[in-house]
Amino acid sequence: MKKKLSPIACFTLALQFLTVFRIPVEAEVDERVVSKSMAWFPVVGLLVGFLMAGVWGRLASIFPSSFLSLLVVLLLAVVTRGLHLDGLSDTLDGLGGGYTREKRLEIMKDSHVGAFGVIGIVFAILLKWVAIWKLPEQARVSVLMLFPVLSRFAMVLVAWRCPYARREGGLGQTYVDSLGGKTVLIATLCTALISIVLLSYWGVLLLIFTVLLSGAASVFFTWTLGGVTGDVLGAINEICEILVLSLCLALPLH
To answer: How far apart are CA 168 and CA 164, in angstroms?
Structure first.
């Protein structure tokens, strides 16, 4: 009989995978643990957001918003080890340079960064920088805490809806192939609760937008790549961060 997994062990594994923080995992790490850790992806996103909001609160009286926004974007990249930006870069290189599923996946495995990847990273950083800078002052801290939650929830949804694209396997296969409905339900409940607490009905609207975006991304990547990879999940995170922040600029969050 398999030992029941501790939520703390699953959360710790999610924290290790998504951030630079390293805490010993009190469990044998197998496919079951890895897939169940995705239930806590949104909570890890909340901790990342809390860190960004804390830095903003501490330094807002010292630095201008323009500089501090860029500092927060840099902090986000450092805390996440640039993992998602790297995924965005590889995915854009594959989509931009290949004309078949096989060729796109082959390009994505190449460690070299192409023109599409460079352009994607540059614009991702610029868009997040300006969006955070221009957020309404009254809602900025709440948005800083919420958008990493929604982007990591988007990764869970896309991994759940899509098959793994590479026949030979890869880094993200364990997350995709073993992901169950109960894990997705926990991630959904966590995300919904955080969204409501932080931004009330606007949080619900952003959550619905994230679900729709995840559905569209699932259809797109199944069509273009035959499914998802670890790089694609990283790209989903970046795209969701940018679009949620952009939507927050359009909403009357006052």
So the answer is: 10
CA 72 to centroid of chain Cα atoms: 16
Compute the distance between CA of residue 138 and CA of residue 124 in angstroms, rounded to an integer.
24
- Residuewise pLDDT in 10s, the chain (254 residues): 455 567 888 888 899 989 999 887 665 655 666 788 999 999 999 999 999 999 999 999 999 999 999 999 999 999 999 999 999 999 999 999 888 999 999 999 888 888 999 999 999 999 999 999 999 999 999 999 999 999 999 999 999 999 999 877 666 677 787 788 999 999 999 999 999 999 999 999 999 999 999 999 999 999 999 999 999 999 999 999 999 999 999 999 87
Dihedral pair phi/psi, residue 14, rounded to 5°: -65, -40
| Inter-residue contact 117 to 231 (CB < 8 Å) | no
Whole-structure pTM value? 0.94
Report the SS3 class of residue 228. strand
**CA nearest 164: which of 181, 155, 178, 177?**
177
CB 246 within 8 A of CB 127: yes
